[in-house]
Design brief:
about 210 residues, mainly alpha, 2 domains, three-stranded antiparallel beta sheet, two-stranded antiparallel ribbon, about 10% strand
């Protein structure tokens, strides 16, 4: 398990591509793309492909469960933590400790503890050990929750595709979606203003007749 396992871009890729009506052929294409991008397994780790851990039906079920746990926050922002935390706690994962040379997990994060032994430097870690695809994805969500980056993972305000922006304030997956949303809102506001003006003219007409 890599130290930086809050791979939210991989989550968006998984949630956008694994759909309830996904066919076996589409699953094969997804598996090829997953292997190419080392989905959830960044270098230098020599893990098997993520899609070797589960079947198409299992992937669909897992995708539905995760989307439910994440989507619940839109319906009830006060309780969405409870649903996700409940799922995380029910996993009852084993805690694992290790200590490897600096650079083994990539560039150290700001504030990360580094042990110096002579001329060598090591990074101590503790993390929940995932042994299944479901555990891996929920450990990833848990890590993102703990370091405050989970809010980067959300649905686009226009096309509703999942996106993981660099900032939590990002609302759209692309400039195109942002422009389309704003154009649609302007048209809607324009129609609303026209309806208000027409209603006002009708009121004035009735007053003049009286």
């Amino acid at each position: 398990m890599p130290d930086d396992f809050t791979q939210l871009d991989d989550f968006a890729f998984f949630l956008n591509n694994v759909t309830p009506d996904m066919t076996p052929e589409q699953w094969q294409n997804f598996s090829k793309a997953a292997r190419k991008r080392k989905l959830f397994f960044p270098r230098p780790f020599k893990f098997p492909s993520f899609t070797e851990w589960l079947t198409l039906d299992e992937a669909k079920t897992l995708r539905t469960e995760i989307a439910r746990d994440l989507g619940h926050r839109d319906k009830n922002p006060q309780r969405w933590f409870a649903r996700l935390l409940g799922t995380l706690n029910r996993l009852e994962l084993k805690t694992k400790y290790d200590c490897n040379p600096v650079g083994f997990y990539g560039k150290p994060r700001p504030g990360q503890v580094i042990l110096k032994v002579g001329k060598n430097q090591f990074v101590p870690r503790v993390y929940p050990e995932a042994t299944t695809a479901r555990e891996l994805l929920y450990v990833t969500l848990g890590a993102a929750l703990m370091d405050g980056r989970l809010e980067r993972l959300k649905t686009c305000g226009f096309c509703k595709q999942w996106t993981a922006g660099k900032k939590t304030s990002k609302k759209f997956c692309s400039t195109v979606c942002k422009d389309n949303f704003n154009n649609q809102r302007r048209l809607s506001e324009g129609d609303h203003n026209k309806r208000r003006a027409a209603a006002r003219r009708r009121r004035l007409l009735r007053v003049s007749k009286d």
